[in-house]
Amino acid sequence: MCKKISIIIPVYNVERFLRRCLDSVQNQSYSNWECIIVDDGSKDSSPAICDEYVKTDSRFKVIHKENGGVSEARNTGLSQVSGEWVTFVDSDDELTLDALKYFTEGMERYPKVSVLRGGHRTITPTAIGKDRQAEEWIYTKSHADALKISEETWCSGFMWSTCFRKDILEGVQFDNYITWCEDHIFTYQCMLKAKEIAFVPHVVYVYYLDDTYPAGFGKNLSFKPISYDMAIRSAEEQRKVKLLLAGGNKKMQQMVQLQYEATMRFAIYQSFFSHNLLSVINLTKAYSFITTKNVIRLWLGYQKTRMIHAYKVVFNKY
């Protein structure tokens, strides 16, 4: 078996990390791949770096476009794939050396599988996290089981440690409006279309997280608050597709609801950054699980985060 794997990498102002990412693709032990780089209007040297790899290795392709956001960039990449399988890499992360080889092992083990979910490792400037992966090869035809195993193995809705058969991607796109957890929604939608899903007992992806960002912001957000309305929409979309995956499984339905409630509380947290206090009041009226106590606790956490960030900026502790 020598399946061609398409790798999509959206790029925006990542000159510091881009070579590390592209080198991890170029050095793969499995060689039958194409890498579609979508330069989303970068203003630094990222476009030149992309062009450099394209000139030296024909497996790299680059699309230079005006800035439209990460979802639009990924959709652009999807429209150009020629491989039978597709995976995604963030431009400040990297694949492990044998990542694609492990995916192809899964394709050989389970010829009808449509989604392969690998393990990942998180690295911050101060620590290397525990490897998160399945302990053995796992195969299932049950959507509820796939959702359960995804949580147990810390795959969650992470798209970047997952390989998708191209045909199940038809009709599935990234929502250009949602820029937080948009990959989770995409992954769950693909899992819902898949009749067979397998879990790879190997780390395939290294996720770099800058631990200097305030809690809840994730990476590449430059301390800009996530849109309150967008966070709500993301929470609703995740809940909808995950409930479809859970089916009639009561325990999984309960898990999905608890995760939904946690995400909604995060939306409240975001509203503090945008000073959208009226929205907080409206949420407490609309959702019974959001109490005044929750709001006060989140407000105190918000104030603590702002103070810590201000201290680090003033005293150059980042």
Structure description:
By secondary structure, the protein is α/β, with parallel strands linked by helices. It folds into two domains: 5-208, Spore Coat Polysaccharide Biosynthesis Protein SpsA, Chain A (Alpha-Beta Complex), CATH 3.90.550.10; 228-314, no CATH class. Helix content is 43%, strand content 18%. It has ten helices and ten strands. Strands 1, 2, 3, 4, 5, 6, 7, 8, 9 and 10 form a ten-stranded mixed sheet that branches. Helix 1 (18-26) links the parallel strand 1 and strand 2. The longest helix has 24 residues, at 250-273. Mean pLDDT is 85; it is low at 212-218.
What does this entry show, briefly?
With 318 residues, the protein is an alpha/beta fold. The chain contains 10 helices and 10 strands.
Profile the largest sheet.
10 strands, mixed
- Quickly count the domains: 2
CATH class of the largest domain: Alpha Beta
Shape assignment: globular
Strand content: 15-25%
Please provide the ordered H/E string of secondary-structure elements.
EHEHEHEEHEEEHEHEHHHH
CATH architecture of the largest domain: Alpha-Beta Complex
Structural class: alpha/beta
Average the pLDDT over all residues and give the rounded result.
Answer: 85
CATH topology of the largest domain: Spore Coat Polysaccharide Biosynthesis Protein SpsA, Chain A
- Report the strand count: 10
Low-confidence regions: 212-218
C-alpha end-to-end distance = 48 Å
Helix content: 40-55%
Number of helices: 10
Over all CA atoms, what is the radius of gyration? 20 Å
